[in-house]
Write a structure and sequence with these properties.
Mean pLDDT: 83
Shape: elongated
Distance between the termini: 83 Å
CATH architecture of the largest domain: Alpha-Beta Horseshoe
Strand content: 25-35%
Structural class: alpha/beta
Helix content: 10-25%
CATH topology of the largest domain: Leucine-rich repeat, LRR (right-handed beta-alpha superhelix)
Low-confidence stretches: 16-36, 162-169
Radius of gyration: 24 Å
Length: about 300
């Protein structure tokens, strides 16, 4: 009797494993697929539609009273200069969506200059990643996804126009993700929008940048936000910044003088690590500073404290 009960229990466990294990494997594979998000041109052509040299998808419109709108997934032509169409088959183009690939986003390697119409309000994650684009012109407030321009090594200029102003940078109201300009080694300057937080890895590896300006709206600088910006010589901080996260300015080896903002409360680990040319630092009293905030700053003479 006891032996039969044990056999039944073991049989039940075996059946349970036969059911659960395939489900776990399938879910793991799906999660991996979702994480990479990389699809071949053949797969895109199979699943979506084509307009000229653009592969696009029809989606429910989310604004402007339209029933449907268009998301462009990839440009597969050979032109060096392109204008994104305002409409495809009577539907507004609202988004450029790339793939989760730092070297092969949504644009062919031939493209050097891109002009976006004012109806495009969303630049998705990895949209231009790894492309050879040198110039991008946008209109109005935009949502820019993670790593949208990552590894665009030839990118020099991003212009955004909206309302009555035109700037060499991003317009007021623009929302951004992390690593947007990661490793854009030719990018010299981008006018930041009025954000509260500069996301992590935002300008990491932008070796040609010499100046960065934080508007009064800024309260925090994210982890590794300007790491490896070896050409950076001038930082204009918002006085309202309270936190500079770890590795924020690591490897900014051309910085010589830094005056930290008056309301700074927290300076995290390795915030200015290996800023080997840094000589003078001025900072407010009573900052909670990690002991290795200036690790590897071999030229640093002294940290001077001032009253707010």
């Amino acid at each position: 009797m006891k032996k039969n009960i044990i056999i039944k229990i073991l049989t039940s466990i075996a059946i349970l494993f036969m059911i659960i294990i395939p489900i776990i494997i399938a879910e793991t594979m799906e999660q991996k697929k979702d994480k990479t998000g990389i699809r071949t041109v053949e797969e895109l052509l199979r699943d979506y539609e084509v307009y000229g040299d653009f592969i696009y998808e029809v989606v429910p419109a989310i604004e402007n009273g339209y029933d449907q709108a268009v998301v462009i997934h990839k440009y597969i032509g050979t032109a060096t200069e392109i204008e994104i169409p305002e409409e495809i088959n009577g539907m507004k183009v609202i988004k450029i969506q790339g793939q989760a690939d730092l070297e092969n986003g949504g644009f062919a390697k031939s493209v050097k200059r891109v002009y976006l119409p004012d109806c495009v309000r969303y630049i998705g994650a990895y949209a231009f990643a790894g492309s050879n684009v040198e110039y991008v012109h946008m209109y109005g407030s935009t949502i820019i996804g993670d790593y949208a321009f990552a590894n665009c090594r030839n990118l020099e200029t991003v212009d955004e126009a909206g309302g009555n102003f035109y700037s060499r940078g991003l317009a007021r109201g623009t929302k951004v993700g992390e690593g947007v300009f990661f490793n854009c080694v030719s990018l010299e300057y981008v006018e930041l929008p009025e954000l509260e937080y500069l996301p992590e890895r935002f300008f990491e590896g932008c070796k040609s940048m010499s100046t960065v300006r934080f508007w009064d709206s800024f309260y925090a600088i994210g982890e590794g936000a300007l790491r490896g910006c070896s050409g950076l010589t001038d930082i204009e901080f918002s006085p309202n910044i309270t936190t500079i996260d770890k590795d924020a300015f690591e490897g900014c080896s051309s910085l010589q003088d830094v005056e930290l903002p008056a309301n700074l409360k927290k300076l995290e680990n390795n915030a200015f690590k290996n800023c080997t040319s840094l000589i003078n630092v001025w900072m407010p009293k009573n900052v909670d500073m990690d002991k290795e905030a200036f690790y590897g700053c071999t030229a640093l003479r002294e940290v001077q404290y001032y009253d707010k």
